[in-house]
Amino acid sequence: MSGKTSKDELMVQLIAGSVAGLVQTTASQPFEFWKTVAQLPHKYPSEMLPLGQYFTGCSILNVSVVAKTAVRFGAFHGVTNWMQGTLSEEQVPSNARVILASLFTGTMESLCIVPFEAIKTNMIENAVLGTSIIESGGEISKPKATFHRTKPVTNALKYRDPIPVQGLLNNIKEMYASRGLRSYFQGLMPTLCRQLGNSVVRFSTYTAMKQVWLQKFANNDTLQTYMGVILGTLSSIAVVSLTQPLDVIKTRMQSQWAPKTYTNSINCAYQIFVQEGIPTFWKGFVPRLFKVGISGGITFGIYEYVENLIHLMQKDGYLK
Fold first, then answer.
1. What pLDDT score was predicted for residue 2?
2. Would you say 243 and 137 are in contact if contact means Cβ atoms under 8 Å apart?
3. pLDDT, tens digit, for every residue of 211-259?
4. Which residues, including other chains, have CB under 8 Å from residue 101's CB and lie 6 or more apart?
5. Residue 154 or 174, more confident
6. Contact criterion met (CB below 8 Å) for 177 and 159
7. In sequence order, what are the residues at sequence separation of 6 or more whose Cβ sits closer than 8 angstroms to the Cβ of residue 13?
8. No. of H helices and E strands in the chain?
């Protein structure tokens, strides 16, 4: 592969991934809001919120979408192509290459999105705290008594109670004022583990199904857009089924009250288990299934469409 061809292919990946990410993030945000609210440790009333509230956090996710989707697709395809060009089948089998590329992609993506995810969770938590909780007299859930002796969470970093604020910039400022720089990296480990699991399951299942489809049912090497949507949705169902507990822990660790509630991610998982029970690890499963399903279907479908469109325009001479 020549340098020019490699650069052109990377540009195709960046454009296709960015367009797909922007569309899926906006379309699936209400499900992301619903999922996050269900996972937070608060007692929320059940009344409907104003429509605009369900898109809270969409702004920060759209800010991050270009970097995130570029890393997701660019890194995966780049590492896969590199391994195909440098490693023989005897050294690393094709299935192992997919897993290795997925692990690398998930790691890079996780490190990229942690601050944006933390801000998003903070914005959603404040949106509900500032409306339903205050208006209806709701309260923070109190831990139940357990058979073990709980270890008190210290306040060595001089954490102060957060103040509910609205708006992207106000949330960023309040996070720093109440918890410092650490607030942007809360939930780092569960986010990393979740993203690794997401990438391994998503790309492994999607690539395997795509190869089977192209070999047995397609007349050429081009995957139709509708099949990209179907295969992306199927791979998303597998993602949610296997990684939901990690997503719950991630959301809890990114809560404004996490520094006063949990010492670390393991302690968070333990407290959820002994105080709330195993079903709590699957809170938000339905909205996340819709969210990930829509995201996976739209992302892979639009990615394949944009990629095929750019390649066709290059072939016809419209793009040099």
1. 43
2. no
3. 888 887 766 667 777 777 788 778 878 888 889 999 999 999 999 888 8
4. 75, 76, 79, 80, 83, 203
5. 174
6. no
7. 70, 73, 74, 77, 78, 307
8. 11, 0
First vs last C-alpha separation in the chain: 17
- Burial classification of residue 100, based on how many CB atoms lie within 10 Å of its CB (0-12 exposed, 13-18 middle, 19 or more buried): middle
**Shortest CA distance to 265 belongs to which of 253, 257, 276, 282?**
253
**pLDDT tier at 1, thresholds 50, 70, 90:** very low
pTM: 0.72
What residue spans define the domains of the chain? 3-315
Tokens of 276: 């709330």
How far apart are alpha carbons 300 and 297 in whole angstroms? 6
* Architecture per CATH, 3-315: Alpha/alpha barrel (1.50)
pLDDT tens, position by position, 51-80: 888 899 998 988 888 777 667 766 777 777
Mean pLDDT of all residues in 276-284: 91
List own/partner pairs for 256-262 with CB under 8 A and 24 or more apart.
Answer: 256/122, 256/125, 256/126, 256/162, 256/178, 256/179, 257/41, 257/140, 257/162, 258/186, 258/187, 259/153, 259/155, 259/157, 259/159, 259/179, 259/186, 260/153, 260/155, 260/159, 261/41, 261/143, 261/153, 262/153
Give the pLDDT confidence score for residue 253 in this predicted structure.
94
Q: What residues contact residue 251 under an 8 Å CB cut-off, 6+ apart?
A: 36, 39, 40, 121, 187, 284
